[in-house]
Amino acid sequence: MVRTPFTDxxxxxxxxxxxxxxxxxxxxxxxxxxxxxxxxPKYAGLMRCGKSCRLRWMNHLxxxxxxxxxxxxxxxxxxxLHNELGNxxxxxxxxxxxxxxxxxxNHWHAHLKKRLRLxxxxxxxxxxxxxxxxxxxxxxxEHDEDGYNLSNMINGMDWIEENNNHIKTMEQLSSxxxxxxxxxxxxxxxxxxxxxxxxxxxxxxxxxxxFLQ
DNA sequence: AAGCTAATCAACCGCCTGACG
DNA sequence: ACGTCAGGCGGTTGATTAGCT
Length: 213
Known about the structure:
There is one protein chain. The chain is mostly helical. The chain folds into 2 domains: about 5-65, Homeodomain-like (Arc Repressor Mutant, subunit A), CATH 1.10.10.60; about 70-180, no CATH class. It has helices spanning about 20-30, 40-45, 50-60, 70-85, 90-95, 100-125, 125-130, 150-160, 170-175, 180, 195-200, 200-210; strands at about 5, 15. The chain has a two-stranded antiparallel ribbon with strand order 1-2. The chain is elongated, with a radius of gyration of 24 Å. The two termini are about 35 Å apart. It binds a DNA duplex through α3 and α6. InterPro entries: Homeodomain-like_sf (IPR009057), Myb_dom (IPR017930), Myb_TF_plants (IPR015495), SANT/Myb (IPR001005). Its main location: nucleus. One of its GO terms (biological process) is green leaf volatile biosynthetic process. One of its GO terms (cellular component) is nucleus. Keywords: DNA-binding, Nucleus, Repeat.
C-alpha cells in the first residue's frame, strides 16, 4: 500500500521507505534531533528530501506513535473535535496522544465520515431515532456545520456499530422501518547546539563518525 | 481461478505562515 | 517593508490488499 520507490531527476529518492532508511533516520534523529529538516538527509546519509524525512518521522518513526485500530473513545473524540475545529487535523491529532494528523485524517475519510453519513441517512428516516436516541435537549445540544445533531451522530454510530452485521448497505438501511423499535431508549527534544549544524566540518566528520559506530 | 471494484493508508504536492536578514 | 527560507498543514494521489462476482 505504498508507492513504488524511484529516484527523480535530481537524484532524490521517492516512494516507499526501506527498513534501512528508517533505521538511518531514526538513529540520526534520536542522536542529533531535527533542528533543520532540509539539511538532515544530507547529514543522515539519506537520498531523501527534508520534507519526506519529516513526514516519515512524524507519521511513522517518532516515539510514542500508536498504530492499529482506533478505540471507540478516540473515534468519538475525533467526531467531537472535528465538529468544533473543522479540518484542522493537526489540532485534532494533538488531542489524541500517539496519533498523527495524517493518520487521523485518513481515519476520518476512510471510516468516520462514511459512518456519519450513514447515521444521518438513518436519522432522517427515523423521527423516533431523533427523539429517543438523544439524551440532550435539542436547543442546547451541539450541532455540526451542516446542522446535524452531534449527539445523535454519536449515538447513531454506536447503534450502527452494534448492529453492523445486520446493516450491509445504505439501501438496506434506508428501507428498514422496524429498526427504530430496536433502538435503545437511553442510548447514549532533545537539546541541540544549532550552530553545530552550520559548522562546515560537520559535513564529513560527524556523518562519518556517526555511521562508523 | 480470474477479473474487477472498493477500501485503505503511506507518501506527495502545493500553499500558508512565521522567522530572520 | 520586503524577500527568502524552513516548517507545518490540508488535500490529493496511487499502490496494495481484500472482497465480491
